[in-house]
Predict the 3D structure of the following.
Amino acid sequence: MDLVADANVVALQKTINRYAGPGGFSKISPDGTVGQFTGQATLKSLAWLTSNSPDHADTAAGLAAKLVTDTGAIDLAQITSSAAGLYQFLAGAADDAGLAIVNPPLVATVVNKIFPVGSAPSNAAASLSNTWAGLPMWAKVGVGVAFGIGAIATAKYVKKRHGGLGGLLGFNGSFIDV
């Protein structure tokens, strides 16, 4: 799984934010990864164009249809792979509609200064969760074994150095002092 932010997705997310006010949804963080918020905002941007821009309505409706699976779920993989084309279409339509360029949410600005696009994941918790979900079972078992070995080594150290957890916490062998 790629943990580096995609510059095309960042451009798409920044462009989607131009539609947030008129489209009636909240701005999204341009973190370079496509999740549910980006998926929903993409569809809402296309829906706004379908309703408010006769010159772009048919194309927007066609794109929106391609970004939803047969079961009605948002196809995040399709949005990711089509990010450059979606960005170009939405940016051109936003320019035609006179939609202002907006600043991203503050969190994204701070995160992207710490982790510039292309260098590291900007949403570490989500990236860790997505990475864990994408790991094969053998890798998850390996992480569990390594964690278990570390826990055993720590327990042995605490027992040797402090006489056990009670000694480490300041207990004298019983919970009741008599």
